[in-house]
Amino acid sequence: MKVKEEIKKALNIDIDIDEIIFSKNGLRKHILKRKHYDSLKYFEEIEDIINKPDYIGSSPKEKDISIEYVKCYEDNVLVAVKLNRKKSVFYIASMYIISEYKIESRVKSGRLIRIDETCK
Q1: Domain-located, residue 120
Q2: Are the CB atoms for 53 and 71 separated by under 8 Å?
């Protein structure tokens, strides 16, 4: 998977790195540890979420580059991606369900940008 150029442009990310990696076992353990059990039913949809998000954004809490991909299914699923500068790759750090209210709040604050106008 790769971070698309249009996503980097929309989020003002100026870096040549675009590869996204993740460890299925590591991410699954993280999801279970954080008790995000409800997001596991979308685990096999990660590539779809990254390739065709409904919203994109960046976390202001992160010190380095991060990307939030949100896709609207029966639930709204957020996949958090962070940059690993040492390895020159992005990696999937987390995945969880996000409420409609949080999405709208993040859109209003500018943290998320709507990509797909047909989403809820």
Answers
A1: no
A2: yes
